[in-house]
Amino acid sequence: MDEKIIKLNDKIFVHILDTKRFKSNIVAAFLLTDLNKEDVTANALIPAVLRRGTKNLKTMKDISEKMDNMYGAVFDASVDKIGDKQVLQFYISAIDNNFALNNEDLLNESLQFLCEAIYEPKLENGSFDSEYVLQEKETLRELIKGKINNKGTYAIFRCTEEMFGDDPYAIYKFGNEEDLENITSESLYTQYKKVLDTSEKHFYISGNINIDEVKKFFENKFETKESTEVKETKLKKCDLKKLEPRVIVDKMDVTQGKLVLGYDVNVESLENDFYKMTVYNAILGSSSNSKLFQNVREKASLAYTTRSIYVKHKGILLVTAGIELDKYEKALELIKIQVEDMKNGNFTDEDLNDAKVFLENLFVSCLDDQSTMIELSMGQYLLNAESDVYKIIEKIKNVTREDIIEMANKVELKVTYYLKDE
Fold it and tell me: What's the CATH superfamily of 2-221?
């Protein structure tokens, strides 16, 4: 996969992932805004309203017919968060031009449609369609209320919420239910225009691409402004040094306890230490050969599920476990032993090699899915890190046993969160 990044101006970037591996092309857009409590709910609502209709395709039925006419293309929009950024996401997937029966330029149609969906919404008296806004507010309300439905995901959210406090990363990506009451079609349209004006926009085009044609499309669509500004890391690590270790227990009607341990990883550089921590995480708990899986789940039978997650954009490590309600103390103790073993170098060369092989297969598999390729590229870009899969693998292969022990001794437990029965 070859990636070419074209910087049109300080706010708009075009990423071209040129590959002949697929029979389809994907055009995606990421609008990056700063996570904050004031705007998070309205921002989460914007993609949902935009996907309902455009200036020329006023209903979802019209959009669906358009997709059908493009040989069953797929369009969607959503919201996510990456580090301190709330991300408004849009994408359309259509077959490659070479497979169109009547020589249609489906890539150009995809580009035109996605830009229309983002920049030319259906309006009613100079603002968003009030019926669309009302309906999507209720859908978003159910999404926000439903965050407790998946107890494992909810436990992770609560642990990070306790870890980060007033830091933006503690904010739920869909916002807050109480904010919905004050959102009108007029206020949402005002916020939408603010997002368009202030957000950093990244367009991704993946597939068998004519780079010159794509570049020409965007240069005609947007103002281009040459800049020699050096890109700096866009995400920052939160300083958790002053956070006193704490234990948080929530009670809910559950049949299985959800344990999450939140560790600060005192990395010096989110970018440079990413490769070391990725290997550390694979040995500790992200693979089926990991210490957590083998010792806590398989040998001791203290967890139904257990794994570790390295949140590369914030420099934290999360260890999760679904456990029987009467095994909290034993599971907690054994998990802590695995973490201490890593600090003491109690892992084998085979463990290190297995982790590297696991990660190599994992990253190579990214090349088999266009959406995953795009997500990896966007995540690495925000980390200011390498996005070429084979270069990432090479850096992972260079991680040493000493590197792992160095990282292990930077890991510090901050929050022990437990969701138990009432």
Answer: Metalloenzyme, LuxS/M16 peptidase-like (3.30.830.10)
**CATH number of 246-421, picked from 3.40.50.300, 3.90.105.10, 3.30.830.10, 3.60.15.10:** 3.30.830.10
235 phi/psi in degrees, rounded to 5: -115, 140
Place of tokens 């990506």: 173
| Distances, alpha carbon 268 to alpha carbons 239, 245, 317, in Å | 11, 21, 15
Order the strands of the 12-18 sheet from edge to edge.
2-7, 12-18, 200-207, 24-34, 85-95, 74-82
The answer to whether 339 touches 284, Cβ cutoff 8 Å, is yes
pLDDT at 333 over 60: yes
302-to-148, 256, 324, 388, 402 alpha-carbon distances in Å? 24, 12, 7, 39, 30
User: Do strands 411-421 and 246-252 pair parallel, antiparallel, or not at all (unpaired)?
Assistant: parallel
From the list 24, 1, 420, the residue with the least C-alpha distance to 207 is 24
- ∠ Cα 144 50 139 (to 5°): 25
Alpha helix stretches (DSSP H) within 165-249: 185-198, 211-221
Mean pLDDT score across all residues of the chain? 94
**The model's pTM:** 0.93
Q: How many CA atoms lie within 13 A of 255 on its CB side?
A: 1
